[in-house]
Write a structure and sequence with these properties.
With 871 residues, the chain is α+β, with helices and mostly antiparallel strands. It is 40% helix and 26% strand. It has 24 helices and 35 strands. Strands 1, 2, 3, 4, 5, 6, 7, 8 and 9 form a 9-stranded mixed sheet that branches. Strands 13-16-20-19-18-22 form a 6-stranded antiparallel beta barrel. It starts with 5 loop residues before the first helix and ends with a helix.
Length: 871
């Protein structure tokens, strides 16, 4: 059997099935589309489920794909075995009511022996025990009957709940007697490692009904799946997926970076770390390439967990600093031709990985020290399970995924209370929910407001006649409301826009003769609009014919800002990349706010480019058009949709020429020129991987300019210059301040130098150790660290406990000379107990640690704790 590379096998499979009339579909994104049941695509047929279920029409009745997949169910085994991985590729050929068993197995036979030229005497097949058709086909093709094995439902019948199901036929490779169990009846189905299943042909021909019976499908389907890495192992004669040509290339990069040996005597633990990094690199590159960003929820959490797990194993190998982003190049080198999206996004992928590495780098040492301290506490107490509240603290404060904490503990012979962690997590979520609930308007909380569909005509008109369908007062329906009453009015039709999609509500008035109702806000419950406000005069009754009109001056300001968000979104994608997607927005009459996916702060130059692009599109005065299309038509035209948002069959598409096209139900200007101008006020982060831009348009520009000029004049007066000389004066003052700080630092250093000698001279002797305890007022923690370094240079066998008091705040620093650390003392553990005497807590490394504390009056008690610890 001739060895073939993984990329070559993928290409041969695709070309073979294209020659058989199959449509060669590209791999779907790892992010499932229209499928809430999956977090990530985990099989070749997962993106095609809607085709098999008849919910969508496939592009062709015959398809072939090589689908990228991620599974993390067996993540604890990755690296420990030769076959487990989180990322893999699945080759498949599919028939949607076209060909069936005979064609599927015949082509499979042809591909294996005519294209891959595999040895026929090494191939076995299994069939469902009642599937005589499949058995006969294999026999007809030339498979010896003693190599066709009938197995039961658990092995050879594909079924998930009710609906389409059917028997399957699996193809095995015989690795040889040396891998077997030695039993005379050893064959596929045996638990030993001799026979490797690599290709499954599923014959979807039945439908399981609710009564447990099976009916025949009118149009049977074919769904096959062959693990690309697994067939590559067979073709290359290797036992491990990590020895396949493409994956070994990545693994070799890890070895070079770490400078370690692989699969040598005594390297078993190192080998596991090398394989974990190698595997996780593949997953992170492809996940980021498909638009997933690290976060604390969902698929973003999976990505964060993989990056941080790989980063930690890099540290165990002795790799210094960030390294995963460099190794990502090797993944892209191997797979970029088959998956061009990762080559296009190469710089972005590397930046995203590096940013997450750096975040974790800042806390990993401290987190590891804390885990070590926890383990010491467990050992002292004779316990083996780390409580859930401590697992939660590592997650909440230091970004350690609980699974990572569990893994580290397992290496130290301990376990984690993950149920306790979940309880703490739920407690935090409940507190957040309660906090939100307090701020929500509960006055209208009633199911009675679901009174049918309110027809919105506010796109075309700002006023019109309507009928009062209902009135809500104090959370209940009523027949009438009178002057002074706060209420909600429900109309059959309305020009008022209800707050939704990030756009603020309209305000205005509802009138009926002498009765006037002032609308202060509008919300939507189910399909019913609730016009909330106060009766200004008269009495309003259910059934009244009213005249509803919005505040047109305010309404004109809101569409300016809404259309500006569309231009901003398109400009962000143009400057920062296609990975940018909206994750939230707020549009009011005063300003706009736009949240988007991005992994780092947007540079000043990029912000200037983005602002310039938006203003150019405003000055071009591009017509803003809207049209109602089916969701499929809208997507086909390239309209941008919010991921995870639910859309009906028909959607409203808002376009600013060819520059921007989005699905949107909000109100917009007639042309971009009506926006006037656009200015970014500020940019910042709001969550992991989420950035926010706040901006204003023309209506707010005069106020902003006036405010800015007033501020400049005020600062100029303070520093005694005129606005024209302000910059020069501030530069001059900055230099003066810099020089003053240098002089002060030199003075303090000299003073601290003298202090070091004085402190060494008056150190107390405790159990043969020099103990220095001292309070400092108005001295920073950094200055105390420098002082401790100075003392360490002059003396050994010394423990220092310093207290810095500044503005009523207390920080305790514990520093130990290296010889005391070697004797087993640990500053991180000491500071925790010392600070507790003052109502504080903290931690750190063995030689240096600090803690915050609240009660300065108990400082002498804390110093006494330090002495007792040494005793």
């Amino acid at each position: 059997m001739e060895k073939k590379g993984l990329n070559e096998i993928r290409k041969l499979f695709r070309e073979f099935y294209v020659s058989k009339g199959h449509y060669p579909a590209a791999s779907a994104s790892l992010i499932p589309q229209n499928d809430k049941s999956l977090l990530l695509i985990n099989s070749g047929m997962a993106p095609l489920k809607r085709y098999f279920a008849g919910l969508e029409t496939p592009p062709a009745k015959r398809m072939t794909t090589c689908q990228k997949c991620v599974r993390t169910g067996d993540i604890e085994n990755v690296g420990k075995t030769s076959r487990h991985g989180t990322f893999f590729e699945m080759l498949g050929n599919f028939s949607f009511g076209d060909y069936f068993k005979e064609q599927s197995l015949t082509w499979g036979w042809e591909f294996l022996f005519d294209v891959l030229e595999m040895p026929k005497d090494k191939i076995w097949a299994t069939v469902y025990l009642d599937d005589d058709d499949a058995y006969a086909i294999w026999k007809k093709l030339g498979m010896p009957e003693d190599r066709i094995v009938r197995l039961g439902k658990d092995d050879n019948f594909w079924e998930i709940g009710l609906g389409p199901c059917g028997p399957c036929s699996e193809i095995y490779f015989d690795r040889g007697e040396e891998y077997g169990c030695g039993k005379p009846d050893c064959k596929p189905g045996c638990d030993c490692d001799r026979y490797v299943e690599f290709w499954n042909h599923v014959f979807t021909q039945f439908s399981r009904e609710e009564d447990g019976t099976y009916s025949d499908l009118a149009h049977p389907n074919i769904d096959t799946g062959m693990g690309l890495e697994r067939i590559a192992c067979i073709m290359q004669g290797v036992d491990s997926i990590f020895d396949i040509d493409t994956i070994r290339y990545i693994l070799n990069g890890v070895l070079e970076k770490a400078g370690v040996a692989y699969e040598a005597e005594g390297t078993e633990k190192t080998d596991v770390s090398v394989r974990i990094i190698t595997d996780h690199l593949r997953s992170m590159v492809f996940m980021i390439g498909d638009g997933i960003t690290p976060s604390n929820e969902g698929r973003g959490y999976v990505l964060r967990r993989l990056i941080r797990r790989a980063a930690r194993h890099g540290k165990t190998l002795g790799i210094k600093g960030s390294f995963l982003s460099d190794l990502a190049d090797r993944v892209i080198d191997m797979s970029g031709e088959a998956y061009p999206e990762i080559r296009v996004k190469q710089d972005y992928i590397k930046k995203m990985i590096a940013a997450e590495e750096e975040k974790f780098e800042a806390t990993i040492d401290q987190g590891n020290d804390i885990i070590s301290g926890y383990v010491a506490e467990l050992d002292a107490a004779g316990e083996t399970v780390l409580p859930g509240d401590k697992v939660f603290r590592l997650y909440d404060t230091y970004g350690f995924p609980p699974e990572l904490t569990e893994e580290i503990l397992a290496e130290l012979g301990k376990t984690a209370d993950l149920e306790g962690f979940a309880r703490n997590m739920e407690k935090q979520k409940e507190l957040a929910r309660q906090g939100r609930k307090v701020t929500e308007d509960a006055a209208w909380d009633t199911e009675a407001v679901n009174m049918g569909v309110t027809s919105f005509f506010g796109y075309d008109s700002s006023f019109g006649e309507a009928t009062v369908l209902g009135l809500v007062k104090n959370g209940a329906l009523c027949d009438s409301v009178s002057e002074g009453d706060e209420a909600a009015v429900i109309l059959d039709r309305t020009p008022f826009y209800a707050e939704m999609g990030g756009q603020i509500y309209d305000t205005g008035v509802i009138e009926c003769g002498p009765a006037s109702f002032s609308v202060s806000s509008v919300t939507k419950s189910h399909d019913t609009f609730l016009h909330k406000g106060k009766v200004a005069s008269g009495t309003l009754r259910t059934g009244d014919k009213v005249f509803a009109s919005i505040d047109t001056a305010r309404r004109f300001l809101i569409p300016r800002n809404h259309t500006a968000t569309h231009l901003l979104h398109a400009a962000l994608r143009e400057v920062l990349g296609d990975h940018v997607h909206q994750s939230g927005s707020s549009v009011t009459d005063k300003s706009l706010r736009f949240d988007f996916d991005h992994f780092e702060a947007v540079s000043h130059d990029d912000l200037a480019r983005i602002e310039k692009i938006v203003n150019e599109k405003i000055f071009e005065n591009i017509p803003v058009t809207t049209e109602v299309l089916s969701i499929d038509e809208a997507k086909a035209k390239g309209a941008t949709a919010l991921f995870g948002e639910k859309y009906g069959e028909s959607v409203r598409v808002v376009s600013c020429g060819s520059f921007s096209m989005e699905l949107c139900g909000g109100t917009h200007v007639a042309s971009t020129g009506q926006i006037g101008s656009f200015h970014i006020v500020q940019e910042g982060g709001v969550a992991a991987g989420i950035r926010r831009i706040e901006a204003v348009t023309a209506s707010e520009m005069p106020r902003m300019i006036r405010t800015g000029l007033d501020l400049i004049n005020e600062i100029s007066a303070i520093v005694k210059t005129n606005p024209n000389g302000l910059a020069a004066r501030l530069r001059e003052m900055t230099e003066e301040l810099k020089e003053a700080r240098k002089e002060l630092a030199a003075y303090k250093k000299a003073e601290m130098g003298d202090t070091a000698g004085d402190l060494i001279a008056k150190a107390a002797q405790v159990n043969g150790i020099s103990l220095i305890r001292e309070r400092f007022d108005g001295v920073t923690v950094d200055e105390l660290r420098n002082l401790s370094d100075d003392i360490k240079k002059r003396s050994g066998n010394t423990a220092m406990v310093f207290a810095a008091v500044n503005d009523g705040k207390l920080v305790i620093l514990v520093s130990l000379t290296d010889d005391l650390v070697e004797k087993g003392l640990h500053a991180g553990k000491m500071v925790k107990e010392i600070a507790s005497a003052c109502g504080g807590g903290g931690g750190g490394k063995a030689n240096l640690a600090q803690a915050g504390a609240r009660d300065i009056s108990k400082l002498e008690d804390a110093f006494a704790v330090a002495e007792n610890l040494l005793k």
